[in-house]
Amino acid sequence: GQIDIYLFDQLLRGRILPGMRILDAGCGNGRNLVYLLRTAAALGYQIFGADASAWAVQSVRQLAAELAPEIPPENFRIESLQAMSFADVSVDFVICSAVLHFAESDENFLEMLHGCWRLLVPGGMFFCRLASSIGTEHQIQPLGERRFLLPDGSERYLVDEAYLLELTRKLDAQLLDPLKTTVVQNQRSMTTWVLRKNAA
After folding, report:
1. Would you state the pLDDT for residue 200?
2. What are the pLDDT digits (tens) for 107-149?
């Protein structure tokens, strides 16, 4: 499907294991779930998703019905990241791709982040792709509370390396990969942030 290439990298390196409970937080139309749904029955994946858009969740439910009919539609819920109703400490792998940069403020960003983090079991993985200021520091215009006007005309909440490393420490997490940033020419920067939740 249209899987994020950096998420595909996690698959290739064997970090998404058979039998894992996987949540796509901000799943959109399910572009990152196609392979996982196709192989869910054979590999024992339990797949969950949440998105604030009713249209997006309906699209994912239809996709799951076609590719993995054994997965109940209620696994995919119309919910914001900060208010997901899945049980705490219930999933092994959280995907959060191109979502957190829509935060309206520092508080909103942290609410969404912690909404995802509380669901992870000890040893669980958090895969995140989000817009950053890395590599475009001189091309963005500050709007306050880490929100910026980007060269492509959009407004985004942007993190930087120091903030991501600070958050990693505050979450008591292990950075599994160095931060990797792709600079899209004259448009934006996207950073990949991959963490493991330390055991309590």
Report:
1. 66
2. 999 999 999 999 999 999 999 999 999 999 999 999 999 999 9
d(CA 135, CA 142): 15
Q: What percent of the chain has pLDDT over 70?
A: 100
- The amino acid at 101: H
81, 54 Cβ separation under 8 angstroms: no
Cβ proximity of 58 and 65 under 8 Å: no
Q: How far is the first Cα of the chain from the last one, in angstroms, to the nearest whole number? A: 36
Write the single-letter amino acid at 146.
R
Residue type at position 65: A
Cα–Cα distance for residue pair 56/17, rounded to 1 Å: 26
Residue holding tokens 């008591």? 172
